[in-house]
Amino acid sequence: MQKKPIVLDDLPARVLERAERLIFFAIGAMLFLGAVALVLKSTLLLGAMLTSPDALASGGKFLDFVLLILMLVELAYTVTLSLRGQVLKAEPFLIVGLIAVIRRILVITVGDVSNGTTGVQPGQSATDLAILTGVVFAFVLSIFLLRMRPEANAVAWHHE
């Protein structure tokens, strides 16, 4: 395959494209390194959970770390798709949002159970849980609808 000759008009676009790919690579690498660091930290939390008399609090922290790891890996996957030049999809972003909302629900629930209260006004955590549950349903419905129409799952642009 022959390379096209470099046209000076294309040079700024090529430089910006290379810079964009370099930034995506750096972001992807940081996300994966962050996930690895959290895996190591969650391993320590798992040990603490197994030996702690208060397994509920340790379990809540462990679950929080695991869900954060899932969010980082899903974001890194999306960056990897972009680097490969594939079509950017909306579904991974919805999954990250869904994990984030579920993570928040679990933090509120574990806080209520372990402390007897989360330090918020009475009824506040129930309101938060109701709103977050509605957001979960919205995310799940969005993912379902995207899977029903595969051609609507891709954003209109992709890298060449």
**Cα-to-Cα separation, first versus last residue:** 16 Å
| Averaged pLDDT | 79
Shape: flat
Determine the number of helices (DSSP H or I, runs of at least 4 residues): 4
The description of the largest β-sheet is: none
Weakly predicted, low-confidence segments:
156-160
How many β-strand stretches?
A: 0
Could you tell me the radius of gyration in angstroms? 21 Å
* Fraction of residues in helix: over 70%
User: Which structural class do you get from the secondary structure elements?
Assistant: mainly alpha
| Beta-strand content estimate | under 5%
H-E string: HHHH
Protein topology:
Elements: H1 11-51, H2 55-83, H3 91-115, H4 124-148
Question: Short description, anyone?
Answer:
The chain is mainly α and about 160 residues long. It has 4 helices and no strands.
Overview of the molecule:
This protein is mainly α and 160 residues long. The protein is built from 4 helices and no strands. The protein has helices at residues 11-51, 55-83, 91-115, 124-148. α1 (11-51) packs antiparallel against α2 (55-83), α2 runs antiparallel to α3 and α3 (91-115) runs antiparallel to α4. The longest helix is centred in the first third of the chain and has 41 residues, at 11-51. The model is unreliable at 156-160 (pLDDT under 50).
Which key features would you list for this structure?
160 residues, mainly alpha, flat, disordered C terminus
